[in-house]
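Researcher: I'm preparing a figure for a lab meeting and need a structural model of a single chain. I don't have an experimental structure, so a prediction will have to do for now. The sequence is pasted below. Please return the structure as tokens so I can convert it later.
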Amino acid sequence: MKKRILIVEDDDSIRELLSSELALSGFDVSAAANGQEGFHLLERLSPFSLIVLDLMMPVMDGWSFLKKLNCDPRFRSLPVVVVSGSIDKVAIELATVVLPKPFDLQTLLEAVERCTRETH
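Model: Understood. Here is the structure written out token by token.
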């Protein structure tokens, strides 16, 4: 069974790139354009193995998403790979892996593989 990944990223081109690369790597991928959409998908389509999250987004930003995720016992233990141009203490404390933009795609894929292997 394929491991499921949720991508929460407002930049269409990055979201599409991540979706296609992760699908090519054998993951079942769902994607959202902001934290609110992402949390809705998380509640509706779980279980997910991992979340790839941007921080700076409209509607619900990544910091709010991380805080909400950590307050919800259903999702608190999900690994989160933050990929953002704006990294801070909150992201570092709440995320499993933090990668600054621009990111190296191979580094991101390795982090996703490592996190999904460790949790399942």
